Amino acid sequence: MNTKQPPLGVIVLAAGKGTRMKSALPKTLHPVCGKAMARHVIDAATGLSPTRIVVVVGHGAEQARETLRGPGILFVEQPELLGTADAVRRCHETLSGCDRVLVLNGDSPLIRVETLQPLVEAFDGTAPLALLFNRVPDEGAFGRIQRDGRGQVAGIVEASSGGGGITERNAGQYMFEAAWLWTHLERVTASDSGEYYLTSLPGMAHAEGRPAQAIETTSEDVMGVDTRAGLAAAEAIMRQRILARHLDRGVTISDPATTYIDADVVIEADVTILPNCYLYGATYVAGDSVIGPGTTLENATVGSDSRVKSSVIEDSRIGDGVQVGPFSHVRGGAEIGDGCFLGNYAEVKNARLGAGVKMHHFSYIGDAEVGERTNIAAGTITCNYDGVSKHRTVIGRDVLLGSDTMLVAPVTIGDGAMTAAGSVVTRDLAPGERVAGVPARTLKKREGSE
Fold this sequence. Notes:
Layout: E1 8-14, E2 31-32, E3 35-36, H1 37-46, E4 52-57, H2 61-68, E5 73-77, H3 84-89, E6 100-105, H4 113-122, E7 129-137, E8 142-147, E9 153-159, E10 166-177, H5 178-185, H6 201-207, E11 213-216, H7 228-248, E12 252-253, E13 259-261, E14 266-267, E15 272-273, E16 277-280, E17 284-285, E18 290-291, E19 296-298, E20 301-302, E21 307-308, E22 312-314, E23 317-318, E24 323-324, E25 329-331, E26 335-336, E27 341-342, E28 347-349, E29 352-353, E30 358-359, E31 364-366, E32 368-370, E33 375-376, E34 381-383, E35 393-395, E36 400-401, E37 406-408, E38 411-413, E39 418-419, E40 424-425, E41 434-436, E42 441-442
Parallel strand pairs: 1-4, 1-6, 4-5, 7-11, 12-15, 13-16, 14-17, 15-18, 16-19, 17-20, 18-21, 19-22, 20-23, 21-24, 22-25, 23-26, 24-27, 25-28, 26-29, 27-30, 28-31, 29-32, 30-33, 32-35, 33-36, 34-37, 35-38, 36-39, 37-40, 39-41
Antiparallel strand pairs: 2-3, 6-10, 7-10, 8-9, 41-42
């Protein structure tokens, strides 16, 4: 909470269906760089340290709550979509005790705290509201700021076309004196469509001799998204911002044009990202690692000084000094220990590999525990599925699994055991035991041999 300013309440309008998106997904839940549009707005508002954030939901209300929930986020439902003024009015009780109210559009994902700060700071009590605007060509359907002879805001005029040139477009982001807002919302009359709009309020303020303050901003920051084309445009802008942020923080991105990084990805300095890489979700990459080329990381953690080449890591953790790929796949909550090596076309699923494990090409380890320094030769697999259930394999330390070994789970391989090439292991092996064959049988020691 900001103790130097009167309590601030934030309303994020996210109730609309977004008919022009032609989607079953509510408009403000469409993702931009891996995060719902309304979530970007919430994050920007959070940077202002508000007392309370209220999200107005309507169409797809339950889905919106699930997607946008978080610490301190409250929800108010607008059962009938009767316009922005009706949506804000429903937040009165929830924002009780807030002297100032900031209203934001949930379909403006490019809004930043740097954009909102001047709006909040300009609100000095001389006017009951302040609003953001941007200058655009005077054509198309949108709300335009109307000025009086002294240049003050006289109201907002909704029009389908203008008179040419450049005009001031109402961005739809407002800062209100709370007491004034709640009393004047009751005076808003219905439009021809039967809806109630916040754009009526600037005209009321002017009529009372307290015209709204108008703060200019860039068209990019307040761009609203209501079509798939607009969504693609917002994605492109956000992507460039994200890339610029990582470059500024010491990340090498050799080909930004073919690098896609989601908003919540964390990359330490001195990481190198090679061409054709995709970093999604809650991904974290530690310093001195090299990612790519042609790599996808999704909800992945990669330790320091590791290399992931032409591979896919999903919902898994990679330790320090690990080599993966090319063409490997790590998924399903797998954990790869420090100093491991995964060769080409190796796959690990829901398994833990201890430090120093070497897993060679065309091998699969699923639902397993693998001890330190074990060597998994080419073509080795854990047969973890019996047609009904998944079973777990436990492999000890310093084990040598020969090429094309099949471990039929559930099975435990003791420390230091060894399988010959082509072995099919259907029972537990004791520490140091050596087996071969189908099914695998213990190899007897020859006299005088080790």
